[in-house]
Design brief:
Serine Threonine Protein Phosphatase 5, Tetratricopeptide repeat; 4 domains; Rossmann fold; 14% strand; 4-stranded mixed sheet; 6-stranded mixed sheet; alpha/beta
C-alpha cells in the first residue's frame, strides 16, 4: 500500500498503533516504543502477550474487511519469553532480539511465538499451535523453536506440520528404510507470474499420487514432503529425516504456453543421481508428461511391477487446464482447515465443475468441503451436509472408479451417517486403489475404532505415521481414542499428551484419568474442556459419535461423567 499512497498508509498504521497503545494496559503490558510501522512491547506474562496479539490481529482483520487488498494493513507479531535488562527507561537483552527475529520470520497477519513461550501458554490458552521448526536466526547463538498461533485449535489439529523433538523418538530413529521407499519433493517454480505456481504444485501432487497407487512402493505423503518447500536441505538429509531411499526433485519453468520441466531421481543410500531429464512441452501435454515421468521413475528404481498395474495407475485428466487449476487452488484453501478457507475452496471446486462438469476430482474435493462443514458445524444446513457429501462422492466414483479420493470421502459420509459396514467398505476400496494414502488410513482407523476394531485401528495409524512423518494431531487423537476403547488408559493419556494442540484431546484425557481414579487430573481436564467449549454437554457430544456398539458409546460417556462433565 505504501507505494500507492504513502500518506494514507502512514495514517492507517498510526491509527492501529494507537489502538494497540490504548488496549495494552488491559493485558498487563507496556508499549516501550514504536518506529514507523513497528512497535516493541513488554508484558508481565506470555499468556497476556499472546492473548493481546490475538485480539489485535482480530481488530486488524475487522478493519481490513471492507478494504481492497492493496489498502489492507497487516501486522506480524513475534512473542518470546525471557529475561530483559533494564537501564532506566531502556530495556535490552537477547530475549528481545529473539522476539524481533521471530517477528521478522512471521507472515503478515500471523502470530509466531518461541518454544519458551509455547511451553508456557500451550496448556493455558485454548488456541492452536503449528510447529514451524527450529530456526537459526542471525546473531542468535542457539536454535530457536518457533510456533505459529492458530486462533481455532481444531484447524491446527487437522493441519500437518513439523513435530517437535521427533528425532528423539526411538520409533523414529530406528525405523527401517524400505528398498522401494520414495519421496517427491515440492517442485520449484520459475516464471514471471506467481499465480502460475500451481503448475509446479500440481506436478508434484500428481506424480506423488501416481506413485502412491503402486502397492510395491512406500511413498511419503505429499503433506510431509510439502514441509520442505522452503527449507534448503540436501536430498540425502531429507531422505534420512523421512526414512526413504529415493528422492525425486525438480523445477518447472513456464513461458507462455510452453513448459520446461527439469527432474532428477536420487538414490540417497548410494548418494548418486540415477536418472535426470529435461522436458520441453506445450502446456496441453502436461498430463501425458506426468504419466511418462511416473513410468520412468518406476523403471529407474527397478520396481517389479506388472503391466496391468501400470495401466491401472493412470489418472483420468480433466477436459481442460482451467478446471485442473481451480481444483489445485481449492485444495490449497482446503488444507488450511478454517471456515473461511473451506468456503473459498468450495467456490473453487464449483468453478472447476463449471469448466468441466465430468471432472471426478472436483466432485471428490467438493464432497470434502461438506464433510468438514458438517464435522465442525460450519454448514448453513447441517441436516443435509452429509447427504450432499455422499451424493458428490458417489458422482466422483461414477465418473472415475479408479480414483481413491471419491471412496475416501464416501467412507467419511457413511461413517457419520452411522452406516458402518458401508463406511469400512468404502475405505477398503480407497486403500486398494491408493495403498499409500496416509490420510485415508487415519480416517479408516477412526472408523475401525468406532466399529469395535481398535487393535486394527492402532496398526493402521502406526503405518500412516510412517508414511506421513509430519502428521497432524488428528492422527494422535484417533490413536488415543483407540487405546481408550481398549481400556488402555495409561497409553491413551501418553498418546494424547503428544498432541501439539491438546484442546481437542482433553475429553479423552478427562475420561481416561477418571477411569484410573486420578480425579484431580480428571477435574482439571474437564475444566479445560468447559473453557474451550462453554456449552459442552456430554450427552450432546455422545449423540454425534458414530459408535457401532452402544457399550462403546456408554464407556466414553461414563468416563466424561465421572470426570464431572
Amino acid at each position: 500500500m505504501m507505494s500507492v499512497d504513502e500518506e494514507r498508509t502512514t495514517d492507517a498504521v498510526r491509527e492501529r498503533l494507537a489502538i494497540f497503545r490504548s488496549e495494552i494496559g488491559d493485558f498487563s503490558g507496556e508499549m516501550k516504543g514504536s518506529a514507523g510501522d513497528s512497535a516493541f512491547m513488554i508484558f508481565e506474562s506470555a499468556v497476556d502477550a499472546v492473548t493481546f496479539a490475538v485480539k489485535m490481529q482480530n481488530i486488524c482483520r475487522d478493519m481490513n474487511k471492507d478494504l481492497s487488498s492493496d489498502e489492507q494493513i497487516w501486522f506480524r507479531f513475534g512473542v518470546n519469553l525471557g529475561e530483559v535488562l533494564v537501564h532506566g527507561d531502556e530495556v535490552s537483552g537477547e530475549s528481545i532480539n529473539i522476539a524481533a527475529r521471530i517477528e521478522a520470520f512471521s507472515n503478515p497477519g500471523r502470530i509466531c511465538i518461541s518454544g519458551a513461550a509455547y511451553d508456557h501458554v500451550s496448556n493455558s490458552l485454548e488456541y492452536g499451535y503449528e510447529y514451524l521448526g527450529g530456526q537459526d536466526f542471525k546473531n542468535i547463538g542457539k536454535t530457536i523453536d518457533v510456533f505459529q498461533v492458530h486462533e481455532n485449535p481444531t484447524s491446527a489439529a487437522m493441519t500437518p506440520g513439523l513435530r517437535r523433538d521427533i528425532d528423539k523418538s526411538v520409533d523414529y530413529r530406528e525405523r527401517a528404510i524400505s528398498s522401494q521407499s520414495i519421496v517427491v519433493l515440492p517442485f520449484g517454480f520459475q516464471g514471471s507470474n506467481s499465480d502460475d505456481h500451481w503448475f509446479a504444485e500440481g506436478l508434484t501432487e500428481d506424480v506423488t499420487s501416481s506413485l502412491s497407487r503402486f502397492h510395491q512402493f512406500f511413498v511419503i505423503s505429499r503433506d510431509s514432503a510439502y514441509m520442505y518447500r522452503d527449507r534448503v536441505k540436501a536430498p540425502k538429509q531429507v531422505a534420512s529425516e523421512l526414512g526413504v531411499r529415493y528422492v525425486v526433485e525438480g523445477s518447472v519453468r513456464k513461458a507462455g504456453s510452453r513448459l520446461r520441466i527439469t527432474i532428477q531421481l536420487l538414490d540417497a543410500l548410494q548418494n548418486r543421481t540415477i536418472w535426470g531429464e529435461q522436458y520441453n512441452r506445450n502446456i496441453e501435454d502436461l498430463f501425458d508428461l506426468q504419466d511418462e515421468i511416473t513410468q520412468v521413475i518406476v523403471s529407474a528404481t527397478a520396481a517389479q511391477i506388472e503391466v496391468s498395474e501400470r495401466e491401472r495407475t493412470r489418472l483420468l485428466p480433466p477436459a481442460n487446464l482451467m478446471a485442473y487449476g481451480s481444483v489445485l487452488r481449492g485444495e490449497r484453501y482446503l488444507a488450511q482447515y478454517t471456515q473461511q478457507d473451506v468456503k473459498k475452496a468450495g467456490e473453487m471446486f464449483l468453478s472447476a465443475l463449471r469448466s468441466d462438469e465430468t471432472y471426478s476430482r472436483a466432485y471428490a474435493a467438493n464432497s470434502r468441503t461438506f464433510n468438514l462443514e458438517w464435522r465442525y458445524d460450519w454448514a448453513e444446513n447441517s441436516d443435509t451436509a452429509l447427504d450432499e457429501a455422499l451424493m458428490l462422492a458417489r458422482r466422483a466414483i461414477e465418473l472415475d472408479p479408479s480414483d481413491a479420493r471419491g471412496f475416501g470421502e464416501l467412507g467419511f459420509a457413511h461413517l457419520y451417517r452411522k452406516e458402518h459396514d458401508a463406511a469400512i467398505n468404502a475405505y477398503e476400496r480407497a486403500l486398494k486403489l491408493n495403498p499409500n494414502d496416509a490420510n485415508v488410513m487415519s480416517d479408516m482407523a477412526d472408523a475401525l475404532a468406532h466399529c469395535g476394531r481398535s487393535e486394527e485401528a492402532i496398526a493402521l495409524l502406526q503405518k500412516a505415521m510412517l508414511l506421513n512423518p509430519f502428521y497432524p494431531d488428528q492422527y494422535i487423537w484417533h490413536l488415543g481414542g483407540a487405546y481408550f476403547n481398549l481400556k488402555r488408559y495409561e497409553e491413551a493419556i501418553k498418546t494424547i499428551q503428544k498432541m501439539q494442540n491438546p484442546t481437542e484431546g482433553r475429553r479423552l484425557l478427562a475420561a481416561s484419568y477418571a477411569f484410573l481414579g486420578r480425579m484431580d487430573e480428571a477435574s482439571y481436564e474437564a475444566d479445560r474442556v468447559r473453557t474451550a467449549h462453554p456449552n459442552f454437554v456430554a450427552e450432546r457430544w455422545a449423540a454425534v459419535q458414530p459408535d457401532k456398539y452402544k457399550e462403546d458409546l456408554q464407556h466414553f460417556l461414563d468416563g466424561l461423567k465421572r470426570a464431572g462433565l
